[in-house]
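All the exercises in this workshop are built on plain-text protein records. There is nothing in a record beyond a sequence line and a structure line. A learned vocabulary of local backbone shapes supplies the integers on the structure line. The question running through the whole workshop is how a given chain folds. Here is such a record, shown just as it appears in the course material:

***
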Amino acid sequence: MITYLTGDATDPVGNEPRIICHVCNDIGGWGRGFVLAISRRWPEPEAEFRAWHRSGAGFELGQVRLVQVEESLWVANMIGQHGIRPTTDGPPIRYDAVDRGLEVVAANAIELGASLHMPRIGCGLAGGTWDRIEPLIANRLIAQGIPVTVYDLEGAPIVDHSP
């Protein structure tokens, strides 16, 4: 079961090891959406993402890099969107890449004994729909007993591109 809370995903509840998961693009862009909240709290996730992009080493859809930002807190930079703008093929979200990324995040969560925390990943600038993302989370994380908390920022509209 996914726990839904009103709050800030960059301030996850709990004292156990925690991973904050979010979706990044595959062109190295960092500067809009949830990443701004991450960068306001910690410089490391952005710096690591930009260095990863420059290196080109494994920087592709479905890949994930965990960045430790506090003693028992990591940020998972998960590449799950192609570009930053919709095209004739549809929105930037790539559900198969999100699914592969969640599989990697799950393995890391199990190894660390961590819970997962996130906004409604893929449903903002990536243009995805929660009715497609939520089952991926259920299959990759919840099915393995990994606690997941999804945060909706107080006062902000819930962005979901469902028809």
Observations:
- Residues 115 and 146 are 6 Å apart (CA to CA).
- The longest helix spans residues 95-112.
- The chain has one domain: 2-152.
